[in-house]
TrEMBL record:
Source superkingdom: Bacteria
The organism of origin for this protein: [Kitasatospora] papulosa
The protein's name in its UniProt record: Fe-S cluster assembly protein HesB
Residues in HhH-GPD domain copies: 33-132
Organismal lineage: Bacteria, Bacillati, Actinomycetota, Actinomycetes, Kitasatosporales
A Pfam family that the UniProt record links to this protein: HhH-GPD
Length: 203
């Protein structure tokens, strides 16, 4: 999947669905799209999305150039077809196309080029934050995912990923390696949301 591991596919268990996880493990673009979709839906739903999208496009993988050039209305239809790929299929279809157009313009359509030659964690974080749909938090989580599960570890990657890069943490999708860790991450997210609500009430 990456320059650092010679393109070897990784075994991941994020989507909790074998075919979807197999695609995530071998396709840099699928991993990026899954991270993009990981917003206001269960993590498994988000990371199964790339596999479902590839199926609906009649392919075994996602292609940034093909997605970038796809008719926008037809591409949205791929997302809205039941079962929908996201809670907000229309807006997410647009974001995925924007992401792929950025990859075509800046990285010759190669998702892995975003991180292949990044020399430091700070540089990689900056590149990720420049991607359409990737804010600071999402960029840090994806950086942690690359480091923890795909051996993409430029100097200072844990520091750049912030708390998400901490070893042994269960804060995000970067820490999901099976059903048990998924449950731990979900519990952490629920606790964080409860704490945030309590803080807003007392403010």
């Amino acid at each position: 999947m990456t320059k650092s591991d010679g393109g070897k596919a990784r075994s991941v268990r994020i989507a909790q669905e074998p075919a979807a996880d197999e695609l995530l493990g071998r396709s840099p673009l699928a991993a990026l799209v899954g991270m993009l979709l990981d917003q206001q839906v269960p993590m498994e739903w988000a990371f199964t999305g790339p596999y479902t999208l590839a199926q609906r496009m009649g392919s075994e993988d996602l292609d940034a150039r093909k997605i970038a050039a796809y008719d926008p209305d037809a591409f949205t239809a791929l997302f809205t077809e039941k079962p929908a790929l996201h809670r907000y299929p229309g807006s997410m279809a647009k974001r995925v196309q924007q992401l792929c157009r950025h990859l075509v313009a800046e990285y010759d359509g190669r998702a892995e080029a975003v991180w292949a030659d990044a020399s430091t964690g700070a540089e990689l974080l900056e590149r990720l934050q420049a991607l359409p749909g990737f804010g600071a938090q999402k960029a840090q989580i994806f950086l942690a995912l690359l480091g923890k599960q795909f051996d993409v570890r430029p100097t200072g990657w844990r520091e750049a990923a912030g708390a998400y890069g901490e070893e042994g943490s269960h804060r995000s999708v970067a820490d999901i390696t099976g059903p048990d860790s998924l449950a731990e991450v979900r519990a952490y997210k629920q606790q964080a949301k409860a704490a945030a609500r309590a803080a807003s009430r007392s403010a």
